Amino acid sequence: MFGWFKKKSPGNPPGPQIGRAEFQQFKELSKKSDLLEHFSGVCAGMPQVPFHVKADVQKMANLAQSLISYTGLDIWEIIECAESNEWGPIENKLGQTGASLNTLLQGSRPALERLRTWADENKLPPLSKFDSQAYQMTGFPRDLAEILTLRQLHLPNAGLTSLPVELHFLRALESICVDGNKIKVLPSEIFGLYSLRRIDAEGNEIESIPDAIGQARHLQSLDLDGNNLKSISSEISRCQSLKRAYFRKQQHGVSLDHRDTPLSDNAMQALVEIESRGVDVRY
Question: In terms of residue numbers, what domain contains 270?
């Protein structure tokens, strides 16, 4: 483990080692000059990637996105570090983030303990590796520092009936998968998570998308197929990063773009607006 964090006084717990694993993996991949070249090309808008490096380029993209979330650097600053093999800017930013999160850990301890209790009460499996393009971890940790720095909440078919509002303390959270549960409400608080890019909640019992969706400025993918949607806030039009929004096969049996749609006129106008921006909306 790297040692770039500020020294703590004796007896204080160590700060969360935020982003260190992702940083190390990105550095290792960046040592392959051809891979770094293809990755830079993709970032510059040249999507043609040889098949034999495609998986590694995607992995680099996922890791870079995490580093952007942790450090606040942009993609070209990260690429410049890789090309020059000068990693100081990333190291320094991660150190600052770790120190800040250590303070946050102490301040949010009661909320994190409630999340741990929620995990225990629902008998959620411990955090472990998972092999998919979108999710590399599954389950839920019990260590408070690991909870605080959780990036992916992957809990499909876990028998959940609700999500705790305390999830909004997990500022590194990038993606949520709760497919196949019995959740009726998405807490408004989660849409305020700065790093949140993806929500997969197919096959639940969700009836509405709240006004808070408008706060999710970096949300790219929203999958609510197979729910019971009757209301979508027009604030969805404020999601400037959105690329995909899926609302197919709702449990009430009415397609949301049908003339008998339960959605309001304002909701339909908002969906038409985001479609006009190139968002892939499916009903």
Answer: 109-282
